[in-house]
Structure formats: structure tokens, C-alpha cells
Amino acid sequence: MATVRLWTDDDVAQDPAVKAVFDDIRRVRKSDFINNFWRALANDAATLKRTWESLKAIMGGEGALDPLTRELIYIAVSAANGCSYCIHSHTAAAKQKGMTEAQHMHLLAIVGMASETNNLVTAMQVPVDPEFLVGA
Amino acid sequence: MATVRLWTDDDVAQDPAVKAVFDDIRRVRKSDFINNFWRALANDAATLKRTWESLKAIMGGEGALDPLTRELIYIAVSAANGCSYCIHSHTAAAKQKGMTEAQHMHLLAIVGMASETNNLVTAMQVPVDPEFLVGA
Amino acid sequence: MATVRLWTDDDVAQDPAVKAVFDDIRRVRKSDFINNFWRALANDAATLKRTWESLKAIMGGEGALDPLTRELIYIAVSAANGCSYCIHSHTAAAKQKGMTEAQHMHLLAIVGMASETNNLVTAMQVPVDPEFLVGA
Amino acid sequence: MATVRLWTDDDVAQDPAVKAVFDDIRRVRKSDFINNFWRALANDAATLKRTWESLKAIMGGEGALDPLTRELIYIAVSAANGCSYCIHSHTAAAKQKGMTEAQHMHLLAIVGMASETNNLVTAMQVPVDPEFLVGA
Amino acid sequence: MATVRLWTDDDVAQDPAVKAVFDDIRRVRKSDFINNFWRALANDAATLKRTWESLKAIMGGEGALDPLTRELIYIAVSAANGCSYCIHSHTAAAKQKGMTEAQHMHLLAIVGMASETNNLVTAMQVPVDPEFLVGA
Amino acid sequence: MATVRLWTDDDVAQDPAVKAVFDDIRRVRKSDFINNFWRALANDAATLKRTWESLKAIMGGEGALDPLTRELIYIAVSAANGCSYCIHSHTAAAKQKGMTEAQHMHLLAIVGMASETNNLVTAMQVPVDPEFLVGA
């Protein structure tokens, strides 16, 4: 259960600043469905707007990475950070953007492998090779 | 400074099991350079071999994701796990596989954004929408 | 479901060392309610006593930070560490100590922002400015 | 060493979008000093501007929490996330905003205590008490 | 709910590569029960086989550490990484290998204590003593 | 560089409460060497005393786990939490308590393996098997 109130559409209708963001989410996503993350953030109209604008720019706008790759990275970070909600929502988003089951399983294998070597390296305190520092 | 010994090429020459893995790394990577991670893992020939075989399969073999995308995911996980060495080594690997500066900066923006929303969601304990559970 | 037994008041009544701590919790908090954390720790009377004494000193005793600020910091750490139980219990405690909804939402915005910049900094491996090292 | 280039003031002078943000940082902070975080983010003018605008609003603007409390929370999250750079920069910021040594040490005690109970709770998988779910 | 399909024994029967691993798990563990982790990994026969072979070697084979100590370490890492499933499954495995309640509670005390000092050290950015670097 | 002052023996000599703890550390450890962690904690005599008393009881006193096993668990948690200082200091302590190189490498293999499966499980959101919940 959330530690903050999840705003219903009726709640949203009472607050123009929140409503403007919800309207934009529906417009951009071409869907009436608004997931709980935004209904929780609605308790703070400024953070709601800021977060949506950032997400729209980074995940939805023009960019050097294609939309599916962006979602794969989002899932990877969410898994490493242990955010159950985010894993669910971004796995759903990735599937919607065309992630195949084979891509999903390859992503998971990399996430597991990276976590293993991350912890091995940390536990052994391996010093960075000078070769990796050139030209950064 | 590492908590384990970093094997020199002379050390490696004394141990056939370790040497076989080092030879394979050099063959696959078409380079004489062996980075410190493997020189640290050399203290345990079984883990060295297992880790190299896994990495070769997941990062280098056939797969549903292209080589650059794999490295981007690896960097993302390493950043979320706070592994300085791994960030350096896989950023170098990604550049070698063609990562542009624009792609790098886009990756970083996603890593930052995901960590922000991961923590917002966790701090608010947002329940997973039933819509995200369909068909998993 | 817990991996250890949650002690009921009947269980506690059988063990004087555990009972002494539970009595003190009830006395200090002026409430009969004992939450599950302590019922789980009751399996180890020494850790139970040590943890309660530490918590009482750090969160409840005299100190340089006021009681509400302490709870805000506790929530922030619990969110960053991904402890669902702790987020719930300390959000409840913070509300009891007067946390307003506006303060709660401001706290969440900082937690999200800090996690974003933490990960950006880590992913870019930004070196500490000498200016930050002066006089530490 | 950073995995991205740290922009000098000469670099900044060549890029109006980056320069506008640096000018604003100097104006708001009433100081010529710009720390490395911004010099690293300068590689991506959009993320630079977005991050600065967010930080300015959350850490510097009007809000329900006072400026010092905000910095204490920022340090706590940065410690839990293991961001060395951020711990240094925000400890410096907190001192500038009046953090006493006693407040600093109290903060550290809470950060340590919270991490201990976070991990105890997680290791025991303690279920959330229904009492903590009321009225959220 | 999982983000991937959990394979039933009927599903497994259709796929010889997956079936071979499941058969080996049953043979080694001398039990018909296969837990959900393997049923999830079954979506990727290569990762399934690789993970099982690694686990069999590290947790079940000959080695410098006894089987119970291995499980205690596994629980400790799983707690620090916040993996609820892994805490449950490895606590069950440790009990099966003879972990007493007193050992379990001692383990938990260490996990809590280590997390506390880990975060204190990180928050204070304590430099490593030269004495700890000798002879590594 | 630390964010707090590291107390020299001359500083300690001025403060009886701190001196009493330092004297006890030297007495218990039968060594004049005091590592930086305690010199940093000296800034807060209450936290110094509390932390030392806890560590002495958990790591040094009677208990269900032998001294070396305790250190192995401490290293594992410190690696998962990414505490470089703690990995160094507890690897040194473990060696002093008889950890062989083979035990060290086995420990590292488990730490890596656990982190891999922890993240795989989390990324797949595998539900806990009812079998693991029996009798907890």
C-alpha cells in the first residue's frame, strides 16, 4: 500500500495543474490509462510536472538511442536498484515497443552477468587499468 | 590496491589452466592486452574459466541484442551497482564498439532518470497496476 | 512472511530478557502497540536489547537534530536502501511527529533528485573537486 | 578520472546553451566557482539545463523544508547510494548552510542506524504491520 | 507476479535442453521439487544451463568452505542486495543444511552490524589505512 | 579524504570518553594499532562507544558462529554494499584469523554468484515458492 494518496480521476479534475499533466500524458501516450506512479506523484504538482517533462524528453523525444534500447536500459537500472514497480512497468513498455522474448532473456542474462562481475571486482578491489583512462 | 594478487604474465606462464584462459582471451579479443580483472580472477582458475566462458557467450556470441546495446546495458548496471572499475572498462569497450558521444550522454540521462523514478516509486511504495501483470 | 518467528505477547511473557525490552518500548512510546520488527528481533535477546538501546539514544534522546528531522533522514535512507517495511514504519512515525504532506512531498523530491545525481556522477566517474576537500 | 570530458571555461564559452546555464549557476550561487559535476554534464546541454533547473527548484527554491534539512537528506541518500563525490559536495554545502559538527555526527549516527535496521528487517523479511497501512 | 513465464513440468517436457537441466537438478538434489527460479530461467535454456552448472560447482561441489558456511554467505549477500526471493530460498537451504536458530540470529546480527559500519565509513569517507594494503 | 577529522593519539589524550574506548580497543586487540574508522568515529564519543561495544559483542564475543565465519560474512556484506574501506579492513582481519587463499577465492565466487542470481530473480520478479514459507 502506498505511503501517499493515489489520486482518482475525480481528484485530478479538481486541480488544474495536475489535470494539465494528466491530459498531456493521455495525449502523448494516445491512451486513457494513467498508471499509479503518476497518481502518486499528483500529490506534488511541481514534481509531477517536472518528472513528466523529463521522462517525455529522455524516453520519448528525439535522441541518439532508439526507443526500445532506452527501455532495455531502464529495465536494467530498475533491476539493479530493486524497484519492483519499475521493472513491471518498463517491461510492459518494452514489450509494447517490440521487445521479443529472446531480447528480454538476453537482457536478463546481461543484467545477471554484470551484477556478478561488478561484485567480484568490488570484492577484489581491482584497480582500474591505465589503458581505460586514456582519452576520457 | 587489490585484496588479491594481480597475476603477471610470468605468473600465468606457470599455470596451464590459467594460461589456457588467457590465451583464449587474447585470441578472441585479437589483442595482447589483458586487463586487471582477469589478472585478479587468475587466483582461482575455476572461477576464471567459468567467468570468461559466460562473458564470451553473453557479450560476444550470437544473440538477440547487438554488441553495442549489450555494452550500454552493462554500463547501466555497473553504474547502478556503483562499480567504478566496471564503468571504466565497459565504457572503453562501448567506445570501441562504436558508441558515439551522443549515445553515451543519452545513456547517462536514462541511468539518472531511472534512478530518480526508482527511488520515488520506492519511497512512495506505489502498488503495481494490474494492467502491468497481464500476460506476463 | 518472515524468515524468523514473530513473538506474540504470550511468547514474550516466558522470557524475562525479552520482556524487559518490550516493557521499556511500551513505557518510552507510551503505547501498548509493539510492531513486528521487535517481535522478529525477540528471537535474539541480545540483539533486541542492543538495537532498542541504540534506537532510543539516536532517535529519541537528546541530540543536535530535532525529532522530525531525524525521521526524515531515516525515511530517506530506508528508501535508498529499498526497505519497504522501514519506509512504512518511519513514514508513520514522521506523521506522528508532525510531518505535513508538503514536507513529505518535498522529502520525496529530494530523495529522487539525489538518486538521479548520485547515479549521474557515478556513471561519469566525476573526480572530487579539491575545493571540497579543504578543511575536512 | 571521468569517463566524459570536463569542460573548461574556454570550452563553455564556445557553447551558448551551456554558457547560459553556467552563468545562471554563478548568478544564483553568487560565486565564480563551478564544480566538476556541471563541467561533466556540460557534454549534454539538455541534461545540464534540466538537472540544474530541477536542483535549483528542489534545493534552492521555496519549500516545506528548510535549506539545511534538505542538505542533510541529500547527504543521507548519497551515503546510502555510495556516491563519494556527492557526499563530499553536499557535506561542503551543508557546512556552508550552517551544519554544526554535532549535527553532522548525529546525521551520521542516523544513517548508520537506519542502514542496520534496514538490513535486519530485510534479512528477516518482516511483514508490514497493518497499523502502518492505515490512512496512507 | 513474474515478468516471464514460469514453466510447468508439461512445458519442460517439450524442450529437451531444459528437461536435461531439470533432470539434473532433481538428481543432484535428490528431490522432485523444482523451485520457481529455475522455472523462470527455463525461458532461456542457455542461461538456465550455465546458471545451474555454476551454482552446482560453487555451492555444491568440493571447496574450501563447508556447505553451511556457503549458504550463510549467500543469505548475507541476498539481504544486502534486497532480494526477497533469494533470502527465502537460501534461508530454507541453510536450515536444511543444519543452520540452528542461534546461528541464524548471529548471522543476522552480523549482517546488520556490517551494514551499519559500511554506511558510517562511506558517509565519513574514511581513507584506507596503509596497514591494510600490505601484502595484498 | 574524510569528511570528518581523523583523531590523532594526541587528540584522543584530551578526551577521557574517547580515550577509554581507544584503550579498550588496544586491550582487546592486543595491539597498539588503531585504524582510521575509530579515529573518524572519535568525533562522536557516544557513537564511538556504542559501535565498539556492538562490534566487540557481535564479532569478538561468544557466539554460534566461529570468528572466521563471522569475518567472511562481514566481507560479503561489505562487498555487496560497495564499501571499499570495509572490504580492505575485514579482508585483513579474516587473513589474521586464518583465512586461506582458497577460502578467500571461494568466498568471492559465492559473492559473485549470489549477486548474479539476486539480480536475475529481481529482474524476473520470481514469486516466492510456498514451500519456502513453511514453518518460518
Automatic annotation (TrEMBL), chains A, B, C, D, E, F:
The keyword Transmembrane helix does not apply. Gene3D superfamilies: AhpD-like (1.20.1290.10). One of its GO terms (molecular function) is peroxiredoxin activity. Pfam families: CMD. The keyword Oxidoreductase applies. Keywords: Oxidoreductase, Peroxidase. Residues 50-126 form the Carboxymuconolactone decarboxylase-like domain. NCBIfam families: ahpD_dom (TIGR00778). This is Alkylhydroperoxidase.
